[in-house]
Structures are given as C-alpha cells and as structure tokens.
Amino acid sequence: MAVTLSPAAAERVRSFLASRGHGVGLRLGVKRTGCSGYAYVVNYAEDVGPGDTVFEDHGVKVVVDSDSMALVDGTEVDFIKQGLNEAFKFKNPKARSECGCGESFSL
C-alpha cells in the first residue's frame, strides 16, 4: 500500500505548508460525485486521526482516511503548471476511466 508524490507535488506541498505556518502534510481522499463516479479531495492535513494511514515521500507526509485508502492505493500525486493554470494531477492505477478534467474517475 502506498500513495506517492512527484518531486513537483512534494515541493508544492512543502512551500504551502511553510507559508501557512501549520499543518502536517497533504490529506488525500475521495468522495462519490463527479462525472465519473468518484472525485479526489485534496486538503492540507492539520493532524492525523486514528483511522488514517500516513505515507511519507520526498520528505512530505500524505494522510489518507480509511474509507478512501482502497480507492487511492497506488496513486501518484503530481503537480502540473501549464501557463497560468496549475493543479494536482493523479495517476491512479485503479481508475478505469477519468473525466476530461481529470478530477473524477471510475473503478
């Protein structure tokens, strides 16, 4: 079981945590929604709960709740900048299809 970060994603999280002055890492989860069934939920983790799984990659903690773990196991989180647009992108080996925007997926 693992969730990994690209170097670009790790740097983005590190810089935002430093500017915020608090938080333990990146929180990754999913919710049922979107045009493909599930949507990724990304926030900064303020703490680690009893049901959370914690991974560390490139010196950054990734916190995943127990309900989301089965859906995001094996995912790599990347950070892409294209012109004025920037966003986290997900490479999830469990996803059979994604919507055009890449923010939701189906299994």
3D structure, described in words:
The mean pLDDT is 89. With 107 residues, the protein is an alpha+beta fold. The chain is globular, with a radius of gyration of 13 Å. A hairpin with a 5-residue loop joins β8 and β9. It has a six-stranded mixed beta sheet with strand order 4-5-2-3-9-8. It has a single domain, classed as Hypothetical Protein Aq_1857, Chain: A (Sandwich), CATH 2.60.300. It is built from two helices and nine strands.
Strands across the major sheet, in which order?
A: 4-5-2-3-9-8
Over all CA atoms, what is the radius of gyration? 13 Å
Please give the domain count.
1
Major sheet summary line: 6 strands, mixed
Q: Write down the CATH class.
A: Mainly Beta
Query: SSE order, as H and E?
Result: EHEEEEHEEEE
Task: Please state roughly what percent of the residues sit in beta strands, choosing from under 5%, 5-15%, 15-25%, 25-35%, 35-45% or over 45%.
Answer: over 45%
* Distance separating the two termini: 17 Å
CATH architecture: Sandwich
In DSSP terms (H or I, runs of 4 or more residues), the helix count works out at: 2
Outline type = globular
| Class computed from helices, strands and strand pairing | alpha+beta
**CATH superfamily label:** HesB-like domain
State the helical fraction.
10-25%
Number of strands: 9
CATH topology: Hypothetical Protein Aq_1857, Chain: A
Mean pLDDT: 89
Unreliable parts:
none
